[in-house]
């Protein structure tokens, strides 16, 4: 299916690829004289080629080998990106199958082409490349985008499950496969215990990112989501540590026997490696947070610092034989919070996108390489080994899930139900990690490496394709407890209130539990860490800028609705009804939630949305700008027509004026500057035209109607300070009484009127204005009613 | 992890403890809270109560000033108020009590018992409702059975009071937005002349429908012997 979608994109790519292969063949024909091992060493080849060129200068020369590796890698990535575009063009496809399926298919296609053309794939994967370049971005991304708060709320269960689960799986699978290997009939007797254990450790590295996407869509409950997320995050680290220790054992075993002391040392090593890695990561995280404190003048290097320090933590830990994966994870988790507050908004965006990009490139490469190595001759198909591997993977996962959760449920207030456990069992999708580890097995120590690779591939294909595609329906079928996380501002408020309430009650009880531990940490954090790590007197942090953005959006939306409604003017009342009950748009809720999230006393991120391949779409500022320009044009046009008074205009344009600025005074110059301010209000907020946001609230009866007015922008208009203004309002409200009778008196629905503050305060004394305004309000009341519900904050087209 | 709480603080005076410590049975009979405590928990809470009250039989508002951890809580006043709210104490439909005794203290605490998984659906619903009522009372400060816009704004402002940078206007617009949303959730299609006066308790329940309060509103008390004692 996915393939069909990418057909329209592919032909060019195929062509390119084929051209590339043809070229390489041609060039290798030309350079047959040079030795064949030069394939792996482009530099040698380059030297050879250039020395040849010295002899005879040709007008047109071809040197494909020189660029082969980066060229083909680029093509792969490009191909994968195009495939992803195609994949997402048909919107239902991503819901049906995980993206890793697509990548594997693309890889298999590339592999088929390479195999068909008898080409040798470039040596992208080897141990050092994988561990030094491909793995860190993937892990860093996982750590950086970890939802901190729910993670630490469930940390006990997560560590218990992710840590012990990986160990049980590794040893269980390894030992039971060893037993199978003892059966002579299968022809596996040369596979010894250590090799089996090693295989067990690499096959137990699950990669449930695809499952997370399903969970997010199905909105499963938070603890379940965090279990899988925690597993995805920590599992790699644990498997790699185990893998490395076992490799060390295997090497040692070649020369001498392993003694019990060595095994004890191995266990101790396992703990040291893990804890040491985390320790390193935390230290580096604090250092990088501290450094970003001083980067306000050179914000361009902020992303660089973040990336380099995380990478440095990885390398430093690896130098000391500690777990680099855990180090980089811990580093990302530690620094994230402080860095986010220190760096500028743009740097923050850059960091996020760059991180996503790097990790997706790494993963794409691994998956494609997996596809490439699927099709080829280096396989050894042993029915027994493969079938038993597949079976043991499922069996041991089931055992570990049900055993470990049985224990951890005893300590949880809200245990995981059987359904949850089934889902966790079923989400054991293997991925890039297992394949890389299997592929990197040293052939000298593992004579049957081919069989291991084949078995790993089968397990990966089975889990990714069958489990990955069916877990969505399974989650829906089992009807797992949902979070019902709607986009709701009320909910956000209630939950936050609840958090404080809980902490408060615990304080009163004088008890310690994790709310209080968290609270204590917050206090410590506020008292010391933040003071040290976070820049002081920063320009009101990101909150204000965020708020400004929100404001800007409101203003623009107002204009937008104005323009749009002018076309639908003939049916204003219907429009009102439709709009009146419209719910908040997700974007608005998101921005409100952002404000809440960043400004509560306890800063907490609640968003549980994690997508390995993508970030949430940002508000389209370009579109906003375009609307502004359009609006500007409309204004100019109307000015050109030379109407001095607005009420001579056709109905359609009245609306625009009403919603933009109070019209009625030909002040072209002024209006123009205003519009300009509007467009680049990021730089100057003093001139920003304020939008008045009148919320009529009726607290008691109709008679007690209170008029309150809010200014959405930062600048506030003193309440009641302007009698003229007030009169204007009362005027309208009286008219409402007379004219329409009882209208929605109340309401929490804020009314939005665009009133230019400058205009108000500056020209207030002129009677003419008040006159014209009242006339205006009298005449255009219907339109106001129409627009009353057009609150930009509260609705979007 | 749990019992660390007292280690840092001076041991509560033992005088009169054994005699004044009420037993579990009496409590359940005399005043059935929605969720009862085990005797260990009651003992712990009683010790804490004594500590807070300074060995007096009742706690007054001022006693809560002695809780240093509470100081930074942005909704501190709301929390303290909730302890004295007659509605929460089931002593009346409005007003505040001047002082509360240990029994009342337990009543308040009982709102924060975790819901037992062995309870049947009906009991869960009952407990859920009790918890939500407590929460509702925190919002509805004038006891008129509605959360008005003013009250809502108050709460949001208080919640955001921790950050000096945030301005009142934004807090208000958030409250307005939330109110608007609540209206659309609870009333649905609003007629032009319809008035939404505030969130009633039924509306409040509706808003909370999606959130599993069972997992949210609970405090881990010292020991987790989960005996189903929901009446």
UniProtKB/TrEMBL annotation, chain A:
Membrane topology: Multi-pass membrane protein
Keyword set, alphabetical order: Antiport, Cell membrane, Ion transport, Membrane, Signal, Sodium, Sodium transport, Transmembrane, Transmembrane helix, Transport
Signal peptide positions (record): 1-26
Cellular localisation: Apical cell membrane
Entries under InterPro entries matching the protein: Cation/H_exchanger_CPA1 (IPR018422), Cation/H_exchanger_TM (IPR006153), NaH_exchanger (IPR004709), NHE-2/4 (IPR001953), NHE_CaM-bd (IPR032103)
GO biological process per UniProt: gastric acid secretion; glandular epithelial cell development; potassium ion transmembrane transport; regulation of intracellular pH; sodium ion import across plasma membrane; transepithelial ammonium transport
Residue ranges with Basic and acidic residues bias: 733-747, 767-782
Xref: NCBIfam families: b_cpa1
UniProt family annotation: Belongs to the monovalent cation:proton antiporter 1 (CPA1) transporter (TC 2.A.36) family.
Protein name: Sodium/hydrogen exchanger
High-level lineage: Eukaryota, Metazoa, Chordata, Craniata, Vertebrata
TrEMBL record, chain B:
First-listed, main subcellular location of the protein, grouped into a coarse class: other
Domain EF-hand residues, every copy: 127-162
Pfam family, one: EF-hand_6
Highest rank taxon of the organism: Eukaryota
One of the GO BP terms on file: positive regulation of gene expression
InterPro entries: CHP3, EF-hand-dom_pair, EF_Hand_1_Ca_BS, EF_hand_dom
Keyword Lipid metabolism: no
Keywords, sorted A to Z: Calcium, Cell membrane, Cell projection, Cytoplasm, Differentiation, Lipoprotein, Membrane, Metal-binding, Myristate, Nucleus, Protein kinase inhibitor
Keyword DNA repair appears in the UniProt entry: no
Cellular localization per UniProt: Cell projection, Lamellipodium; Cell projection, Ruffle membrane; Cytoplasm; Membrane
Quaternary state and interactors: Monomer. Homodimer; disulfide-linked. Interacts with SLC9A1/NHE1; the interaction enables an optimal Na(+)/H(+) exchange activity.
Family to which the UniProt record says this protein belongs: Belongs to the calcineurin regulatory subunit family. CHP subfamily.
Task of the protein: Functions as an integral cofactor in cell pH regulation by controlling plasma membrane-type Na(+)/H(+) exchange activity. Promotes the maturation, transport, cell surface stability and exchange activity of SLC9A1/NHE1 at the plasma membrane. Promotes the induction of hematopoietic stem cell differentiation toward megakaryocytic lineage. Essential for the coupling of ERK cascade activation with the expression of ETS family genes in megakaryocytic differentiation. Also involved in granulocytic differentiation in a ERK-dependent manner. Inhibits the phosphatase activity of calcineurin.
Protein name, entry field: Calcineurin B homologous protein 3
Lineage of producing organism: Eukaryota, Metazoa, Chordata, Craniata, Vertebrata
